[in-house]
Amino acid sequence: MAESKVRVDVGGRTLTLSNLEKVLYPASGFTKGEVIDYYVQVAEPVIEHVRDRPATRKRWPDGVGAEFFFEKNAPRGTPGWVRTVLIEHGEGVRYVVVDSLPTLAWVANLAALELHVPQWTVGPRDAVRDSDLLVFDLDPGPPATIVECCRVAELLRERLADDRLEAWPKTSGNKGAQLYVPLSRPVSGARASQYAKRLAAELSHGHPDLVVATMAKNARRGKVYIDWSQNNAAKTTVAPYSLRGTDRPQVSTPLMWDEVADAGRAEDLVFTPADVVGRLEDYGDLLAPMRRVRQTLPAQ
Fold first, then answer.
1. Range(s) of the chain covered by CATH 3.30.70.3300
2. What is the pLDDT of residues 1-18, one digit of tens each?
């Protein structure tokens, strides 16, 4: 069957989109065209949260029921107007930076359902800056779910407040959740990891039936692993509003703290693309206040 293509104007750039009718989520019939349409609708907040951050894309060219691959290097045929940055990891990787609507639509057309970015940014001439985000990745060990992650998020919020730090929660879009702490004074990945590891250990010690701070899989059953290592400069976290490669289309979705406190059923914290578009219309970007906060890590 011949590949169908259509040329469209997106944000002043001409893109050739292909196979828009191709089903990427077989369980729900969600197509590639719908994936692109979703990202176009949420482009403004997505771009705000991935701007200046090299993006690792997780691609499912044949849909979520088939093989996927992580892509770091800009692929062959990347348009000249797409911003790329060269990061010296060994031989060097030329990453795509999703900083415009056309770039986001182009990436979505490649069936890059998921966008993952580091906690640090890149400045002029590809200069790598320190981390301006601290992240706690909350990973539930079955039978624990995102509900237990919400309880841990509340504990972390209280502990962070002791250090005069404010945090913002979001779902991972899969099974867990993340907590973001914006930093107006960037720090090294090692410094951020050290602080996050200390808090994870404190909570694990204080709440051993709920929290675990070790990576050992056999220690996680029924508990929530606080993955402090996501602050390592080599690690990435799924971006806010990114789709996930789950059976049905789900989105990594910012939450209100009231929703975290009221969480009682895991299914209540599963958000579809349509849900997220509606939430943006109703609430705006719940993570937007992070850009206005002035806070720094406490002295060591």
1. 130-236+247-292
2. 457 899 999 999 999 999
Do 132 and 120 meet the contact criterion of CB atoms below 8 Å apart? yes
pLDDT value at 248 more than 90: yes
Task: List C-alpha distances in Å: 112 to 10, 35, 263, 280.
Answer: 17, 9, 30, 22
Q: pTM (2 decimals)?
A: 0.96
Domain with CATH 3.90.920.10 in the chain: 5-126
Q: Residues 30-84: pLDDT tens digits?
A: 999 999 999 999 999 999 999 999 999 999 999 999 999 999 999 999 999 999 9
* Overall CATH class of domain 5-126: alpha beta
Q: What is the DSSP string of 204-222?
A: HHH-TTTEE----GGG-TT
DSSP of the chain: -PPPEEEEEETTEEEEEE-TT-EEETTTTEEHHHHHHHHHHTHHHHHHHHTTSEEEEEE-TT-TTS--EEE-BPPTT--TTS-EEEE-STT-EEEEE--SHHHHHHHHHTTEEEEEE-SEEE-GGGPEEEEEEEEEEEEEPTT--HHHHHHHHHHHHHHHHHTT---EEEE-SSS-EEEEEEEEEEE-HHHHHHHHHHHHHHHHHH-TTTEE----GGG-TTSEEEEGGGGSTT--EEPTT-EE-SSS-EE--B--HHHHHH---GGGG---HHHHHHHHHHH--TTGGGGG----PPP-
